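Figure S7 source data.
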Amino acid sequence: MSLKVIGVGLSPFVRKVRVFLAEKSLPYEHEPLVPMGDNPEYKAKSPLGKIPCLEHDGRPLPDSSVICQYLERIQPEPALYPADDWDFARTLWFEEYADTKMLEAGIPTFQENVLAKRFFQREPDTAKVEKAIDEDLPPFLDYLEGELGDQEYLVAGRFTLADIAVASPFVNFSYGGYRPDASRWPKLAAFLERIHARPSFKKIIEDDAKAMGL
Ligand SMILES: N[C@@H](CCC(=O)N[C@@H](CS)C(=O)NCC(=O)O)C(=O)O
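Tokens for the predicted glutathione complex:
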């Protein structure tokens, strides 16, 4: 079986798939494509033009959520979705939560503090970063703090895709210099530290930081 992940490693969606593959011990090739400009060749594989796209034996499959569900079916062990129906649904919910509005709330930290200078040749818009940190992100962090309670993981008492999906955008926020304040969100801060320390996350975080000179 040959697997290839297309998409630059800095994308939280690409990271989600790469961590998922690492947790499954599935080897893959990585093509760090940046989704910029018109790219008809890539759009033939990923019609929305978004990354990631998985190639399985040369067949393209876009979208990180679709890819993870597919990988679970072709490599069921270790299971990264719970068997229980309710826990399964909760896992999908946390993925949706993280992939959409939570990412949107925090991404200015990364866009302004990392991408602006390096890729867009402009100074960071500090007002956008401050708004993200002071206004937009806290409600998301409050919610996650409450959902975690005294649990080690978000769902089913064990590591699942919910943990991968929620922890992935926080890698971007941390590249942008932001980490949740452990005195205000102690459970979330400890959770993120734990999840990011897993070998599947750690290697990717270090490699991508090195590649960016962070
Ligand atoms: N729902 C998609 C979202 C992917 C996504 O938005 N990727 C961004 C990079 S982080 C992208 O490709 N943006 C380029 C574009 O929208 O044209 C997934 O889960 O794969």
